[in-house]
Specification:
The protein is mainly α. The chain has helices at 9-34, 39-66, 78-108, 129-164, 176-179; strands at 113-116, 119-121. The two termini are 26 Å apart. The mean pLDDT is 91.
Length: 180
């Protein structure tokens, strides 16, 4: 049980690092749709970034299991506490599902999943155009869900920091002293 009132340092570093990676991934995804000329370069960024997010999400979950997060404030309304916990688990599910869906989508489309310098991942789905179409559509829809959830998470963080001032935001903030 975490009795210190804040997340451990690895959790905070993983949180903020992954926040940057996920934001970058969302912008890269939008760029892939918006620019045909940049699409190949953005795909080359998108694939390894997605796998990095997948691996870091696993590390994050292991760290969370080893060092549970601090409790929410006792005076937080029950509905808000439920939404906070549910949204975190949905975020974790999406951090795992989105890269796996992308990988499966490329596999079903018969596309190699090239990472870098000749490293290629094995297919995880059979080559099937109908499956490819379904997985691709699901990946896109869940990307919008992830974007909306990230915005809601940001809004909730700012609410805790600026309105409630209850220490929830501070529990995830890294001080410069800790990072030295």
């Amino acid at each position: 049980m975490n009795r210190h009132g804040h997340f451990n340092l690895p959790a905070r570093i993983l949180h903020w690092g992954m926040a940057l990676l996920i934001l970058a991934m969302l912008f890269v995804g939008v760029g892939m749709v918006a620019s045909l000329s940049l699409r190949p370069v953005l795909f080359d960024i998108h694939r390894p970034l997605g796998i990095a997010i997948l691996l870091l999400a696993v590390v994050r979950l292991l760290n969370r299991w080893r060092s549970p997060p601090p409790s929410l404030p006792a005076d937080l309304p029950v509905l808000q506490a439920f939404v906070a916990k549910a949204s975190h688990w949905i975020l974790y599910a999406l951090m795992l599902a989105m890269p796996l869906l992308g990988w499966a989508t490329l596999s079903a489309g018969g596309y190699p999943v090239r990472m870098f310098a000749g490293v290629q991942l094995p297919p995880i789905a059979p080559h099937d155009p109908a499956l490819y179409a379904g997985l691709r559509g699901t990946h896109v829809v869940l990307a919008f869900v992830l974007f909306a959830l990230v915005l809601a998470h940001l809004g909730a963080a700012l609410y805790h920091a600026w309105v409630r001032r209850d220490g929830v935001f501070a529990s995830m903030a890294c001080s410069g002293r800790e990072l030295r």
